[in-house]
Amino acid sequence: MNQLLKFKPILKEKVWGGEKLIKFLNKKSQLKNIGESWEISDVKDNTSVVTNGAQKGKDLKELILEYKSDLVGGKVYKQFKDKFPILIKFVDAKKPLSVQVHPNDNLALKRHNSLGKTEMWYVMQADKNANLIVGFQKEVKPKEYLYHLKNNSLTDILNIDEVEKGDVYFIPTGTVHAIGAGVLFAEIQQTSDITYRIYDWDRPNSDGTYRELHTEQAIDAIDYSAKESYKTNYKKKLNSPSEIATCPYFTTNILQLEGKIKANHTGKDSFVIYMCVEGKVEFIYKNRVELLNMGETILVPASIKKLDILSEGKSELLEVYIK
Length: 323
Known about the structure:
This protein is mainly β. The chain folds into two domains: 10-219, Sandwich (Jelly Rolls); 242-321, Jelly Rolls, CATH 2.60.120. The protein is built from seven helices and 20 strands. The chain has helices spanning 20-23, 60-67, 69-72, 74-80, 105-112, 142-150, 215-219, and strands at 10-18, 34-40, 42-43, 46-47, 86-93, 99-101, 119-126, 131-136, 158-162, 168-171, 177-179, 183-190, 196-199, 242-246, 251-264, 272-278, 280-285, 288-293, 297-300, 306-321. Strands 14, 15, 16, 17, 18, 19 and 20 form a seven-stranded antiparallel sheet that branches. Strands 1-2-5-12-7-10 form a six-stranded antiparallel sheet. The model has no long low-confidence stretch (mean pLDDT 96).
């Protein structure tokens, strides 16, 4: 596998979506209320297609079948075979998302023949007073949770954080969560689309119907414990990656750039994904240059270990791979 890969975004209209993906991240679409841009996806019926170089027109599934470990890495291919293990998104919430939870691998496999959905968020922009719901304020019992759910007082026991640009949240399976209005963020998650919707703010669809709730399924999927803080603390280092999240499913670093660096992935047995969350950068490999603007994503195959990354001004990248 001998080229860097860019993919066509898969844009999703949502009842809670807005205009920021077009306005700020320059996504091209006539759709209204775009909530998500799936940047790299191997979800069924939503497979990403290459837009550059010799592989243009091929989809991600075709590439894995053809290149196997050269694309994803030996260890990754052994574990996940022909399934790309990570789903990469940009998300814009103009209105609050439903309160939801994702089942763990065991529960998702038993019920849906799927993986669970551990994820993380990196806030790229937030309106004044914009917030996220992550976890409980204190440990609760299922009976207490159900009481508040029935009485429309669930937010009384949930942890609500006001957020700003640069905030990071790691969301393991079982964590009750919701994205508040006015938040634009990058999301890295397991390849899974399994969501249990707990509460949807009594919000009707355009035709007057209501979205399905998954009350019974969610009960034994929820982690009822609580943390002192759900926000991730981290420090940035200029021109050197700093780890902001790691788990068996993905590791994410933040890379603040100014000037030119030589990226070396010799120690990784994995693909590497870069998401541009600020500025613009050039990726240079074998005299071919790929430009990455804010809101764009590129995949470096596991067979490519060394490349140059150039930013003339200040830029920021999320660097994602599997340890």
